[in-house]
Amino acid sequence: MLRPYFFKKLKCYQTAENKAMRRRQTTNIPHTPDKWVDEIAEAYHDAYETKPFGIFVGQKISDKDLFHMTPSICLKFRGIERTKANVDKATEAMLTSYVATEEQTEGIFADQNLAFSFGYLASHYGMDLLTEEEVSEIMIFLEDNRIELQKAIEKKIKKKKD
Q1: Origin, by domain of life (predicted)?
Q2: Contact by Cβ (8 Å): 142, 117
Q3: Which one has a higher pLDDT value, 57 or 98?
């Protein structure tokens, strides 16, 4: 049974350049839910490392805030150039999908790890690297395996601290 996730993204025209970029980027995308757990843990750690720098911009960055970084981390991990258009495309998809899902399924993102995961995956969706169905399937796996996701994230953070 698919849970109700709602996705929105900017309309984009499929150009030969976009198609070529998508082909290049899909070669390093995880192909199993277990691999997504590993990558999301790595992405979470990447965002987590920015927390101490919030002070320089007058912000305290909490773990709950890390999902805001998922569009940039998506671009970074996929090796996609960080142009304004790409950042806007990934960010728009993440934020609109997040709001639409949160409005329809109250409290689904109370778990900060799931919120981060959804933002990261929705950013991939916005960049045409994943389909709605793929994101939904991965999110269902993550919901059903929250403890494994949490352990993978904690392990990654602890490992990098040591």
Answers
A1: Bacteria
A2: yes
A3: 98
pTM given for the model: 0.82
3-class DSSP state for residue 108?
coil
Cβ proximity of 111 and 5 under 8 Å: no
Reduced to 3 states (helix: H, G, I; strand: E, B; else coil), residue 152 is helix
Taking 60 as the threshold, does the pLDDT of residue 4 lie above it?
no
- Domain ranges across the chain: 32-161
Residue 119: which of 78, 148, 91 has the closest Cα?
91
**Residue of 17, 2, 3, 7 lying closest to 121 (CA atoms):** 7
Residue 132 tokens read as 């709605």
SS3 of 5-62: CCCCCCCCCCCHHHHHHHHHHHCCCCCCHHHHHHHHHHHHHHHHCCHHHHHHHCCCCC
Alpha-carbon distance of 128 to 9, in angstroms, equals 9
